[in-house]
Hints:
Order of helices and strands: HHEHEHEHEHEHEHHEHHEH
Low-confidence stretches: 1-38
Shape: globular
Oligomer: single chain
Mean pLDDT: 89
Distance between the termini: 38 Å
Number of helices: 12
Structural class: alpha/beta
CATH class: Alpha Beta
Amino acid sequence: MKRREFIKKSSSGFAGLAIGSTLLNTGKSVGANHSRGNPSNLKKGYMLGTFPNREGYPILEQFSMLRNAGFHGVEPNSGLDRSEILEAKDATGLEIPSIVVATHWSNPLSSPDERVRQTGVNGLITALEDADTYGASCVLLVPGVVNESVSYEDAYRRSQDEIRKVIPLAEELGVTIAIENVWNQFLLSPMEAAGYVDDFESENVGWYMDVGNIMTYGFPQQWIRILGKRIAMVHIKEYSMQKRNEEGPWAGFRVNYLEGDSPWGEIMQALRDIGYSGEYGIAEPAYRDPDLNHEKWLQEFVSDRMDTIFNM
């Protein structure tokens, strides 16, 4: 049964509750290889693009430091040397649960330039192929950007048109294209985000939940409950409302885990309530004390504090 047919049948007779109950309770289950999990047993992943002084460490050394700090998996960007990533993966035993599409900012799928969009599509294809090579279940995609030259309507239509071209490959490989919420002036409410995902009518399009990015204009626990099983993966990111108010929006990210205002207890309960099945919570730390040794920071300020968060 097609997704929209199911929604229509589920909501008949409940017209007054259709929007809320449908979006909250009929989110698709994404990532066929995911096991149903309790967030208290989440594995810890790390977004490799945020590794401290990553230019100074070979990939294998980055993987080794993360393993020693207690991480279970790594989230690299797409387009890296596959043999180098596989060597590091095999040597350390770390998993690769997801891939970040490397081209979505430089070549957004919402661009009015067809050549730019095609480069973005090619980047998404590379990410899906990387995911297949590494055994990742999803790829993180920023679908587009709204600005003075790209209208909201055009971003919606263009990005969906381009993503649809790649869905057959995602379905063939069994990899989920996971749309992430970022500060791109697009998909600004959880109900709209749910509708955007459902428009594709594919089990291989889902949502990548970034809990920190939402803090300045919403409540992550509310987004989690509305998006439900559409959520394929979760980024763990801290945010300080006080710093935002005093120093500006971007300053809100400049805080260690457990030192900001993210309602971690409510976030973890919401993940439990929806039966989050992504297996991982992936660290995307946006702040690091420059005076701290890298190994000490990874262990004490990221890995250990993630343990605390996961058990709330």
